[in-house]
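Late entry, written up from scratch paper. The run itself happened at the end of the previous shift, but nothing got recorded in the book at the time, so transcribing now.
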Amino acid sequence: MDLGSVIDLYDSLAEYLHTARSNSEKYEEESKMLTEIQTYAADEKKLKTFSFLTNLDKLTSDEITEAATALVKRYPKNVDYNLGTNQHHNGEDDR
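Output as recorded:
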């Protein structure tokens, strides 16, 4: 295979991927209509994992630390492990 053919194939693949990404919302909406499923199980699990962030003002420091630690365990490559440590900022001990 010559370099020109490789470039043509690469360009074709790049265009296909761009089009697929551009149409992903359309594909998702069509899939929802066909299956009558509105949310993915993985999305629901993620929402539950992050839901503590919307209730920080209602949680104690211990509850926040526990939820942050669970988040770190679930996403160890994406979340700083120090998030789960019990560090108090602004002089607050407990809520």
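Residues 3-35 form one domain.
(Scratch paper discarded after transcription.)
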